[in-house]
Write a structure and sequence with these properties.
Pemi-like Protein 1, Chain: D, 3 helices, 100 residues
């Protein structure tokens, strides 16, 4: 679903997005923001941006995301085992260390 229409810009630059758009994009959440990029052709691009809790910021660093992609590549190539849950992972580890 997408939106095409007009919104009014008030004197101080304030405008309101339609409620359906705010809900669909999560912009009705506390702290939600819009990233705005002005292109050379005069188009304003807006992207929803939700804040990341401070204790989770590490996960979104470039280095960590590069590592996540590397792991995804290993999994896709069959060079890593994926377990359904923690118990399955622990059973696998025990199996590796228990010679019986």
């Amino acid at each position: 679903m997408s939106f095409h229409g007009y919104v009014s810009v008030q004197a101080r630059g304030v405008f309101a997005l339609p409620a359906e758009v705010r809900r669909r994009l999560g912009l009705d959440e506390p702290g939600a923001q819009l990233e705005i990029t002005e292109r050379d052709d005069g188009v304003l691009e807006m992207r929803p941006a939700l804040p990341v809790p401070a204790d989770q910021k590490w996960f979104w660093t470039r280095r960590w995301q590069e590592r996540e992609l590397e792991v995804d590549e290993h999994v896709a190539a069959g060079r890593a085992e994926v377990h359904d849950d923690g118990d399955a992972l622990l059973a696998h580890i025990v199996g590796l260390t228990d010679p019986s």
